Amino acid sequence: METPAEMLDQEACYRAVLTRDARFDGRFFGCVKTTGIYCRPVCPARTPKRENMTFVVSAAAAEEAGFRACLRCRPETAPDMGAWRGTSNTVSRALALIEAGALDDRNLEHLAERLGVGERHLRRLFRQHLGAAPVSVAQTRRVLLAKALIHQTDLTMAQVALASGFGSVRRFNETFQALYDRPPSALRRRGERPGDGGVRLSLPYRPPYDWEAMMVALAARGDTVEGHSWSRLLIQAVDGAEGRVWVQSAEPGRVDVRVEASDLRAVPGVLARVRRVFDLSADPQAIGCDLSVDPVLAPLIAARPGLRLPGHWIDDSAEPPSDRLMDAVLADRAEAWRPWRAYGALHLFMAGLNAADTKESDNVKDAA
Fold it and tell me: Which residue among 27, 136, 168, 261 is least enclosed by CB atoms within 10 Å?
């Protein structure tokens, strides 16, 4: 299911939908031809007939094809799988920039220049790996973030428009009217929400998650950690606003984020950085499956399947964090770990092992 858009196994996707298999949540979306709606594999609604469904690799591909998001399973709450695909470094870097708002106030040509590729080539890569154009991915990101803000906060519609990256309230209203045939305010469900200020959102991730290890790692490098809560000051020059962001663990599969910012337009970038710092887009199943082929890593991953890579708030590297390797001694062995080399090195570090230990383990196995 981690393959490019055109290689999705449609029958396998339908079997996953029939069983509402949570392992595939976020890996693909099902489009229902009879209703014009697209859903997550775990949608609680009655499963449509096979002939009425087609499957796409991204929410953007579904919306570009004319389908609108299901109001029951809410695709905006699915785990984000974009950053870990490993199919194209260029696409991964582009997704990170788009998530931070790169296409909210700039055009595709500028994004392509930042990536060092041609605009046409970038479009081709997005079609190949996500089944949608970069501008469609950017619009879907804005719409799904706006839906989350509408459902989870009491921000006014004008504030939601700013906080989700829309350039104007008019554009915000027109987009929702076109996609859902109703104004955005019609999607709001009233209920009790925390009244301590700021923008509060619950961000999804794919369990398991070793929260204790993450907090220890963040505190060790000097981040502000108090118990199970992490926070950081927002700076105008870096974040586009003054303020602060707090993150703490919630129910399994979710983290709670609170952002207090002097300018709501900074919210998309702040959330993108939170996802990177806490490695919320990681897929433990894919990582464990690939790395467990190494006999040294297999027991380590089985013991700690929820390890995540602490990310940096500011990260302009061209190489995905998941594939970075700081230990040159491990280079030869770690080549087989791609694109998860950094995870392999992290598991060794957490187990107190080094390159010499892995070689010794191999020698013992060979001797046996």
Answer: 168
